[in-house]
Amino acid sequence: MERDREARSLVDRLPSTGGAALWFYALAFVLVPALLAWKGFAYIVGVVIFAIGLRPHVVALAEGRNFSFGMRRNGQSPPRTRRLQFASEATVVRIVSTLLVLFTLLVVPFLAYVLQYQAVAFYRQLSTHLPTIIEQLTSFFIAAHDRMPTLVPDVAEVDGKGWEGLSALLGQIAGDAITDLKGALKQTSTDLVTLIGTLLADWVKLVIGAIIVGTILGSWDKEVKMHRAIISGGIKDPSLRANVLRYGELYQDGVSLFLIGYLEVALTLSVLYMLAMIVMPLSLGIGAIIFMGFVLGFSTAVPKIGGIIAMAISFLLMVTNLTPGIGWFGWTMVSFGLWIDVLVRTALLMAISKLMGLLEAYSYTPDIIGARLGMTKLQIIATILIWAVGAGFFGMIWGIWISLAFQAALRLAQENGEISFAEDKAA
What we know:
Elements: H1 2-13, H2 17-36, H3 38-63, E1 65-69, E2 80-84, H4 89-128, H5 130-147, H6 162-174, H7 177-218, H8 220-234, H9 238-279, H10 286-300, H11 306-319, E3 326-328, E4 331-334, H12 338-373, H13 377-415
Antiparallel strand pairs: 1-2, 3-4
Helix pairs in contact: 2-3, 2-8, 3-4, 3-7, 3-9, 4-7, 9-10, 9-12, 9-13, 10-11, 11-12, 12-13
């Protein structure tokens, strides 16, 4: 009898069949992959979380969504609105899935084409202005020789003229530095080949991720039904089961709010960039202004570190534009010489990027994203900087997903009345 009682108590301690299914589900899709195949686990979870955050916007578009245009005043939405609505949810899913795949397929080749075009244009401009560059560098070395005759050789005593003579002069000044520079360039070329291979691999992953997102959105009801059934069947306590399911809903809301908040910040900054580049005499065409506005706007919208990225992009785009003149849309209003003109235009665009970075960090991100999520500036800054510095750009995205897990838990505790941030009126 005692053995039967002990056997029954041991059996009672075992999880139910639903509980066992939940444990095996966690082991098969979370715990074991996270330990043994972290890169694959991080990739698929990141894609799934993106699909989860995108789903509410698909539903909203199917039901009809109002879009506001204009500047915010006192935190209120602009008065001008437009309503966008589609015939059915399936139509929205097809459109969103197609656009995601096309975007991931085309954006990388398009950016590569732009960079290649910019490189060719820079080479042509450099060839065109090479005599002027040599003349200015020669004048610089003559002035330097007059001030430091023992350190800088006399240009007149160097064999050769033009680029050959300048190269010989630089060789005398630098000595073995030229050899070291060649070695550095060779290593840089090797690193660039490796980088290109990595970018191509990431591009393929982005395309596959877009296809997976479309698949999830297309079979959303079936996926949700199965996952809710697994969780509900594995948790016996009604209160715990309700909290777990509600937590998932709140986490989805948080991801959705972050995605739409980032998009709002990015589009706002893109428009401001375009307006600033139209006002400033950067000698850019309309096409270049639109392209650069979107690139810099979406780069700057990356919380906290986007301003630095945008300044680096601004420097690269403008310093390689070796055209004289300062003005608007190809019309030169004034010119101080090739190098001064390039430096002035570069400094102007970098100053614009710095200003936009400050607006993102201290106005738009806290007001739009922070207010939507109910998170403080310190929480957002800590999340971004810790993960960006410690784990790079994609690590920063994971940091955002993890911080949203905290945000969902906080909202659940508030709903249950366990945490309150209301001010004490009696005090």
